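Input structure tokens:
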């Protein structure tokens, strides 16, 4: 199945346990292989504290998701991890398919 990048951007991102956590931002593509390396996750401001992240004064926190962390794409992007697992991954200094932009 193919999808245009413009149709992917802005889609809601839902954890495996059904919580909306943000939306798709940009895509990072490896030019040598033309494969998506990362999807940008723009986190919703109201989930930041629950995920253990500090709210910035303006805007929100952005994270990068490896494509392997995506279970399916339909009207929404559904992740392979639940809300608690996402929080743990974002809090970790060791990227395991999820990286918080600093």
């Amino acid at each position: 199945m193919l999808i245009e990048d413009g149709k992917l951007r802005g889609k809601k991102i839902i954890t495996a346990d059904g919580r909306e956590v943000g939306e798709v931002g940009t895509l990072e593509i490896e030019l040598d292989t033309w494969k998506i390396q990362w999807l940008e996750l723009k986190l919703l401001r109201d989930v930041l504290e629950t995920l253990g992240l500090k709210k910035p004064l303006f805007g929100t926190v952005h994270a990068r998701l490896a494509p392997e962390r995506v279970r399916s794409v339909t009207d929404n992007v559904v992740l392979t991890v639940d809300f608690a697992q996402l929080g743990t991954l974002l809090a970790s200094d060791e990227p395991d398919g999820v990286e918080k932009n600093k």
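The longest strand covers residues 20-30. DSSP finds three helices and seven strands in the chain.
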